[in-house]
Amino acid sequence: MSCIFKAGGGLYPRMRLGAILLAAGESKRMNGVNKLALEIQGVPLLKRALFALSGAGVDEVAVVLGHDFERLDPLISAFPVTVVRNERYRDGQMSSVRAGLAALQGPFNALLVCPADMPLLNAQDIQGLIGAFKKRETGVAVVPRVGGKRGNPIVLDWAACEEILAGGSDFGCRQFIDRNPDRVMAFDSGNDHYIVDLDSPEDIRALEARLGLKLKLPEVAASVAA
Fold this sequence. Notes:
- By secondary structure, the chain is an alpha/beta fold.
- Helices cover 31% and strands 19% of the residues.
- The protein starts with 16 loop residues before the first strand and ends with a helix.
């Protein structure tokens, strides 16, 4: 791995950190626009997610692609990441989590599972979450929570990852968290970066208003435009 994913540091003991970046979805509510190719100040959303993970000191990243693979793969070709092509992406996010886990060269002290469609998430946000994981007194997972709403990314220890892999094709992070509330610590925060994502054209307009920027939309997929 290149040193781009070795930029950690801080007051806490150094941990080996892995990450799964989930980027396989179909953007069904976006009217044919692939939101991960949307550009904010010239940088596609998918690249911004990788810059955030790099700045937070993550050692290894598996990027799980699926829908629109041919468009998204070239956007990240310069990054020292493992690209996973999930042919079963229509089965839902669980299939992508499991594909990413299987591709990583574990074990890790901690693993981040991060959707790629969080436009405000930055390295400092991820470092805050990792810090909460390091300081936790109990549990095997940390989940950000803003105003009572569960957010992302989540952080898991490697034992929890192994449990997820052993749980069968219908078992993923959400199921693990729901079934093990006593093993999950909520990281309560007033930072809404953990809960802002892009699911619809309305979300894009709200983000433009918030940032005071006009975002560059990618071309609509040919199959939709036709």
